[in-house]
Design goal:
single chain, 5-stranded parallel sheet, 12 helices, 9% strand
């Protein structure tokens, strides 16, 4: 995950001062390369300690490490984001970068999810509005693999899952923001039964993360100076990776039988 995606992933966790740093830096990441921490703080209208906390929130030891990561990222671009490139190219590049970042995601988490689905008596794929697209795509892929699957974007059905799931079930929720849109009854039911639950999100601090056994963080496409981009295309790419991982494990288990 590049530093621009990392900033966006933690958007929901920033304090007010950290949020000002985020909005300032996300509009012009090149300032991190060009400015010292004091000047960044002055432009954002916050203290230097707020900038330091902003960096540490993302997992950096401090501004120096964050600055180095941003400089390395900018050096891989043909030019700085927002400079001499049309908006369509910037958007396409952001989606390409996010999908490339999937290569570095936690393979153990992907394997754990694949194994849980293979062993489940029923896989429940949940998502609201646009997040239902990857949920339904996963359902179709699992059906092709002979795995019993149910998908829905209906909050009433979410509640019913707590009565139909078993200890051998697996629940996977797709939510770009990680907010609670009625998922809690299903997750509480799964928890009481001992069923496995997974959240796939772009938010590093999701509101329902503490209710899920596993949280899989996906990169969010981000373009400085351009409004929030829909990240569900990245989720669809992730579903293709997951389907391939399940298919591979299924084949390996069949060969060993």
């Amino acid at each position: 995950m590049n530093p621009i995606e990392n900033m966006a992933a933690h958007e929901g966790a920033y304090s007010d001062a950290e949020a000002r740093v985020y909005h300032t830096v996300s509009q012009n990441p090149a300032m991190v390369r060009d400015y010292c921490i004091t000047k960044v703080a002055r432009v954002a209208g916050v203290s230097t300690s707020a900038v330091m906390r902003f960096c540490q929130r993302m997992g950096y030891r401090g501004y120096k490490d964050f600055r180095f990561d941003v400089m390395r990222y900018l050096s891989t671009r043909e030019d700085d984001p927002g400079q001499n490139r049309d908006r369509s190219s910037l958007i396409a590049g952001a989606y390409a970068d996010a999908c490339v970042s999937l290569q570095t995601m936690d393979r153990e988490a992907l394997s754990t999810l694949a194994q849980a689905m293979l062993r489940a008596d029923m896989v429940f794929c949940l998502g609201v509005y646009r997040s239902y697209l990857p949920a339904e795509m996963l359902r179709m892929s699992l059906v092709d693999l002979g795995i019993r699957t149910f998908s829905t974007n209906d909050r009433v059905e979410f509640t019913r899952i707590s009565y139909t799931a078993t200890a051998r079930s697996a629940i996977i929720i797709f939510s770009e923001s990680g907010d609670d849109f009625g998922y809690r009854p299903a997750l509480e039911g799964a928890h009481s039964l001992g069923a496995a639950s997974f959240l796939v999100t772009c938010n590093a601090s999701p509101a329902i993360g503490d209710r899920c056994d596993h949280v899989i963080l996906l990169p969010r496409p981000v373009v400085p100076g351009i409004a929030h981009l829909d990240a569900h295309a990245v989720a669809l790419a992730f579903v293709s990776m997951l389907s391939e991982a399940i298919n591979r494990q299924q084949s390996d288990e069949g060969a060993m039988a």
